[in-house]
Amino acid sequence: MERLYVTPVLKAELAQKYDIGRDWAVTAYAALGAREEPLTYEEGDQLGLKVALQIAEVRERVQQRRRKGRRYSGFSARDAHDFVPQRTRSPSPAGMSFD
Predict the structure, then answer these.
(1) Residue 12 Cα to chain centre, angstroms
(2) C-beta neighbour count of 3 within 10 angstroms
(3) pTM of this structure
(4) Fewer Cβ atoms within 10 A, N terminus or C terminus of the chain?
């Protein structure tokens, strides 16, 4: 079976829309927070205002720590757990793989 590549933005959007699961959302948000470039307008529109602002906030904290010379490896899944809501439904259907 061929794997389908899903961008972190699409992964986050699907996790929100279909309540796929917290772990799925956390990995997507962590990838977005860790990357060098900021969210684009289109990505922010896809994610929604709340999530886009949360990612921007954490990215700003990372930048502040770097400017102050503090050692910080960047945005991680641990950071993302702070704002990803708890799952209310079961994870993605069996047999589906969107890595």
Answers:
(1) 6
(2) 8
(3) 0.66
(4) N
